[in-house]
Amino acid sequence: MAELLLGQVLSYAGDPFAEGLGAARHLTHGAVLIEDGRIRAVGPADTLRAAHPQARVTDYGRHLISAGFVDAHAHYPQTAIIASWGKRLIDWLNLYTFPEEMRFADPDYAALIAARYFDLTLANGTTSVCSYCTIHPASVDAFFAAAARRGQRVWAGKTCMDRNAPEGLRDSAASAYDDSKRLLTKWHGAGRASYVITPRFSPTSTPEQLSAMGALWAEHPDCLMQTHLSEQTDEIAWVRSLYPSTRDYLDTYEAHGLLGKGGLYGHAIWLEEREKARLAEVDDSLIHGPTSNTFIGSGLFDMGGLKAAGHRVGLATDTGGGSSFSMLRTMAAAYEVGQLRGRALHPAELWWLATQGSAQSLHAADRIGNIAPGMEADLVVIDLSSTPAIAQASARAEDIWQALFPTIMMGDDRATHAVWVAGQKVV
Ligand SMILES: [Zn+2]
């Protein structure tokens, strides 16, 4: 049966970083028609009601209907260690991350955390995620199975590490290749699942393992490849000592076949000029995790400069180095990081990053991250007055952006009024 959702509707006809506010489309009394899991039409409520009298109507009043949020970089196995105190990146991995990831050798534990992770993220209006798993194949199966039960479009891969990680959390170049290939064959394109080739980062892979991952990517160029790049200065110094013959951090990937279109590079804070130029040349995706960057003390991502230079940029929680499951909180942190770099991101830009920008970074902007005919019907309905503090601020608003910004800065899962996945209401 066709569903007709009424409310304020926000969508995009372009990238507001490039085209300004004219790229955003806002309907005060709008409607979205859903059928067979897809968006069939968007337009004024009166027009769509008259044209589709048989559709079942859900009236969301003044609430805002948007594409569901897309989180372009997360570590679902770190769900239970989110908001662990202190430490910089390498200590954080050794003290918190690795002991927790060790537990995913148990398929039941992996299933428990995967279910918890999707419950938490859906409650925050996130309908698609791209996640790292652990080195254990069972952690990948648990993730994709949990997503399939909820009908979600997701990306994930087995994290590969064959050095500088504890016993029990290391694979080898050969087993990483074999396990990844088997999981890729099992999950890539199964329903709404996409497999992502996932070397954690250069310090935890030997050159042999990076080469094996590069070879696998060359065999499956339709897969994305995700890794980390230039997050902290001490990490970069470590990479230099581990790979003395490479020009820079990016070169450790490039030298092993891990640079190209479809590559997702998390963080990318301390890039050198050669790295920026080379990444732009290959039409890379840079993934910004602002709550993680401030929480672990990594640095300030240059959103203004990198967007102006034409990079694809996605927005991400980076759970659990990031300190929140909420893409609203993540937008707020992106705003704060932007302020510290002298570039105040407009609410239209922040919202675009959390939906269409992240979808673009995952090369899926034609399917998710926007409201337009033919797109998959993954939607979030946002209450713009979800707390007394937000309600009193948004009550003074003179346009949609003033009404939306208090929710971006102060909102949490209470702002999630409803969530639709593939045309089904799930929250
Ligand atoms: Zn990460």
Low-confidence stretches: none
Oligomer category: single chain
Number of strands: 16
β-sheet strand percentage? 15-25%
Helical run tally: 16
Short description:
The chain is of the alpha/beta class.
Describe the structure.
There is one protein chain. The protein is of the alpha/beta class and 427 residues long. The chain has 16 helices and 16 strands. It has helices at 16-19, 45-51, 89-102, 107-123, 137-150, 173-187, 207-219, 233-242, 249-254, 273-281, 290-295, 303-308, 327-340, 347-361, 388-394, 400-410, and strands at residues 3-12, 24-35, 38-44, 56-67, 69-75, 126-132, 154-157, 159-160, 193-199, 224-229, 263-267, 285-288, 312-315, 379-382, 416-421, 424-425. The strands form 2 sheets. Strands 5, 6, 7, 8, 9, 10, 11, 12 and 13 form a 9-stranded parallel beta sheet that branches. A 7-stranded mixed beta sheet has the order 3-2-1-4-14-15-16. It is globular. The chain starts with a strand and ends with a strand. The model has no long low-confidence stretch (mean pLDDT 97). Zinc ion binds at residues 73, 75, 228, 266, 318, 321.
